[in-house]
Amino acid sequence: MRDYYEILGVERSASADEVKKAYRKLAMQFHPDRNPGDSEAENRFKEAAEAYEVLSNPDKRQRYDRFGHAGVRGNGGQGPGPGFQDINDIFSAFSDIFGSGGSIFDDVFSGGATRGRRSRRGGRPGSDLRIKLPLSLEEISEGVEKKIKVKKQTPCKECSGRGVQNETEGYATCQTCQGVGEVRHVTRSVFGQFVNVQPCPTCRGEGRIIRDRCPGCSGEGRVKNEETISINVPAGVVEGHYLTLRGAGNAGIRGGEPGDLRVEIEELPHEHFTRESLDIYFDLYVSVPEAALGTEAEVPTLKGRARLQIDAGIQGGKVLRMRERGLPEVHGNRRGDQMVRVHVWTPRNLSDEERATLESMKNSEAFKPAPDAADDRKSFFSRVRDVFS
Q1: CATH of the domain at 311
Q2: What pLDDT does 265 receive?
Q3: What is the DSSP string of 114-174?
């Protein structure tokens, strides 16, 4: 049998607090709720509990230090040693500190008796909500505060979310789980012992039942309602991004923690622009004379309209860049650009006079296509031209 000090990983001179701290660490690591179906972890959990049961008791520790394991078993004259065979034996052995304020078990047994007591005080948690928030590119560009109405469960005003008319006398301890909030089923097989922990079917994990229901909410402590929620959207968000508002979801049952509200960003189609990452694209159409002679065009931007110089002889497909007229990064100082794609509009319906004019220019050398060979070899992005407006 292993030495108890070795099991807990402490020196023989360790103080009571050091012994407690060491056991607490092992109990968290090997607790069956955290290692379901793991017989090795269960054995380590029982082994640590046995060591702690002896070393936390000054009298038993003294006998163990003097006589070893024999000092705490039958041949030591003090009856059988702990030798826990069942997980429930451990819980029973430490029943005096289960759920007590500040005890080592308060945050160890997340699925055990302590959780049941906490649940009994706090009801059952509410569920999360998900909504979509449509935003225009202008709102994404600058960031925006949106107020939206959300249909959700809110605390009942008649009972202040308690679910009972009288908080002192409105509840009774659940007799199925004895107030723990869960039931344990221990099964044995050739592979070892298994502990199945489930919420109590009678009280659904609360450890209590209602005797005096609030008529306004039928004992739930919450009612269906509509609430206006303010959402601060940072600049530069992308479609599919989520904003999480803690505690803005459905109210919990009988005072339980509220759920969260997850807001999914949805980008609305824009009248003028398409988006590619931080850049926005706009299609500008110019006439043949404007393309040949040059012009100054007025184009929309996310902050209003701006003037853009079109050089004489510009070719269709040319892309002009308006620096920092795009969208910002969510976290950062960089802002994208506005890309203006130039399209030369070819007229479809010509008058006889217009047709005659074009016929007279058709054979002119200036109107014969003569693309520069070097420009043809350039890629689309290498032909992007920077223009400041």
Answers
A1: 2.60.260.20
A2: 94
A3: HHHHHHHHH-BPPPPEEEEEEE-HHHHHH-EEEEEEEEEEEE-TTTTTSSBS-TTTSEEE-
Same domain for 15 and 91: yes
Q: Which one of 110, 144, 169 terminates a domain?
A: 110
* Runs of H (alpha helix) within the chain: 4-8, 16-30, 39-55, 58-67, 87-93, 113-122, 137-142, 288-293, 352-362, 373-377
DSSP characters for 286-336?
A: EEHHHHHH-EEEEEEETTEEEEEEE-TTPPTT-EEEETT-S-B-SSSS-B-
117 part of a folded domain: no
Maximum alpha-carbon separation in the chain: 125
Looking up tokens 């994208």 gives 336
| Torsion angle of the four alpha carbons 281, 282, 286, 292, in this order, in degrees rounded to the nearest 10 | -30
Instruction: Note whether 148 and 225 are same-domain residues.
Output: yes
- pLDDT tens column, 246-257: 999 999 998 889
Compute the average pLDDT of residues 267-284.
95
- What share of the chain has pLDDT > 90, as a percent? 42
Q: Is 359 found in the same domain as 259?
A: no
Regarding whether 23 and 70 lie in a shared domain, the answer is: yes
Round to whole Å and give the CA distance between 294 and 342.
12
Question: Cβ of 289: how many Cβ atoms within 10 Å?
Answer: 9
Separation between Cα atoms, residue 52 and residue 271, nearest integer Å: 72
Q: Residue 372 is encoded by which pair of tokens?
A: 């520069």
Integer angstrom CA distances of residue 238 from 161, 267, 268, 276: 37, 7, 11, 11
How many Cβ atoms are within 10 Å of 4's Cβ, its own excluded?
25
Whether 123 is covered by a domain: the verdict is no
Structural domain including 204 reads 129-267
Burial class (CB in 10 A: 0-12, 13-18, 19+), 138: middle
- pLDDT tens figures, 344-358: 999 988 999 989 988
